[in-house]
Amino acid sequence: MRRVLSLVILALVAVLAACTPANSETPVAPTVEEVPTAESAVELGMPADSEVIQQAIADLAGQLGIDESEITVIQAEPVTWSDGSLGCPQPDMMYTQALVDGAFIQLEVDGEVYNYHSGGDQTPLLCEGESVAPGELPDGIVESGATAPSASPEETNLMIPVTSRIVQSAVVDLANQLGVLSDEVIILRADPVVWADGSLGCPQPDMMYTQVQVEGAFIQLQVGDTIYNYHSGGSQDPFLCEGEAAITPGELPPGATGGGQS
User: Fold this and answer.
1) Which segments of the chain does DSSP mark as H helices, in order?
2) Taking all residues of the chain, what is their mean pLDDT, rounded to a whole number?
C-alpha cells in the first residue's frame, strides 16, 4: 500500500512541474521618465527655477524654435546695472542715469552663447551682438552677487559701505561725466551727515531752500589728481557740487554736521 501511495505522489509532482512555465519572471514596474528641463552647467547665483531664468529660457526656445530642454544655463547672477540701458545700450537711445537692480543670464545652445539682461520691470531681453566669455560678466555692471566690488586701501575705512547704492550712484555719475571707467574712480570718503537746510550744503544763486535739517551723505571722489564732492539728502540722488571750495580730505563742507571723521 505504501508503495502505491508513493507512486501516486510522484505522479502528482510530475504533473504540477509540467504545468509550470519554464521561463517565469518576476514582473518589473515600468520606469517613469522625468520631464526634461534646461540643464545647468555651473552653480547659479539664483534659483534655477526662478521666474526670470525661466522667462529667458522660454524666450530663447521660442526664438530658435527648439525645446527648452536643449538649452543649457551657463550662469545667472543678480546684478546692479549702471543705468537704464541694463548693460545693453542701443544707438540713438537715451537712458536714465540711475542704478537698476536686475539679472544677467547666459544660455547656451549647440556651442552658441546667448546673453540675457533684465532689470526693474523689464523681462529678460536678448542682448544681440554682445560678446561675453562664458562665466564672465558684461560691461555696465557696478555690483553683482558673484563679484562684489573690492575696496581699495583708501576705501577700507568708509563710514558708508563702498557697495551701498548711494556711493555707487556717485561713482557711476562721475565716471559718466568724465568718460572714464568706474574702476578709475577712487572713493576718498563717504560720510552720513545732517545738512543745515534744503540746499544740502550746495546752495545755488537765486534759489530758495527749506530751512529744515536734512539727513544725507557727503561723498568725496578722486580721479587723477582732482577731487570731486558729491552731496545727497532726503530723496535726492548724489549730485556733484561744482564750484565748491576745496575741502581737505577728512573735513566736512559748510552746512554739514555729524557723521564726519575726527
Assistant:
1) 2-19, 51-64, 165-178
2) 77
